Amino acid sequence: MNKTVRRLADGRRITYYDEDPRAHGRTASDTRNLPHVTATSEVRRDPLTGEDVVIAAHRQTRTYKPPADLCPLCPTAPGRLTEVPERDYDVVVFDNRFPAFSGGTGHADVVCFTSDHHSSFAELSPRRVRTVLEALADRTAELSTRDGVEQVFPFENRGEEIGVTLHHPHGQIYAYPFVPPRTERMLTTARTHYAEHGTHVLGDVLADEHADRRRIVAQGEHWTAFVPPAARWPVHVLVVPHRQVADLTELSTPERDDFAEVYLSVLRRCDALYDRPLPYVAGWHQAPVHRDRDLAWLHLELFSIRRAEDKLKYLAGSESGMAVWINDSTPEQIADKLRAAR
Quick check: 130 and 260 in contact, CB under 8 A? Predict the structure, then answer.
């Protein structure tokens, strides 16, 4: 892989990750007349729960559902200047123009998986998935060195039903200036489990899933994808490496190769479930940067709000008000449907 770092017209950083090691010609300049990003965000703590909330009012002005010929994530073309100055690319990462975090309080990246506007992650080749993984690992390593960054969270939102406003296949990377509540809860559980049993909780869950087999969706030499035993969502899958690693930077070459095959199998089953693109959120749970790295176990979590071909799950009173999920399907039923989807 070849990595090239450039700057956009307003000073933001853009990084190209090319699969061809001979690709050294990323020299196109951003000729747009852009003002420097003046976004400001702040973190406020909820005094009743102790949880942090990000206030980023400037994001109200971000680009909203442009037509394909005005997509800002496509390569630049004659008569159309975009966020990517080059005429084509493999994988590209750049500073978000409308970041959730700014002013030295965290950071937000945009990650474009392909230059093909009409493609999807499920349609990527294993080699391209591997390149995406390399990019995410590279950015995790760099962002983890920044002052104030406590956790790095790469994720993809897919589908209008999820709230996506740009249809080009892309994801984001948030570098949080705090450890998010979900991670804190998982670490507390992992710490208690280790004190009682001397083992990692996710390692024990993985062993149980291998023994039970009912909830496994796909499996490779180094990864297993399964529906969690207390699944919250109508479609809910964890993709877990067979050994404990803290974050993407610690994965071996064979593990990165195997992930591409297993994850693509999961995504293709998801799209075959209702014979249409499945809206989903997929995110990497990585260890905090500065603590509890021995307790965390890297894994990817994918979930969807689609509960039937023509129905969505809404987070109503119990879920939104009390964070108590009520699932209309059993995890075993979800796994059965995904295994049968081809």
Answer: yes
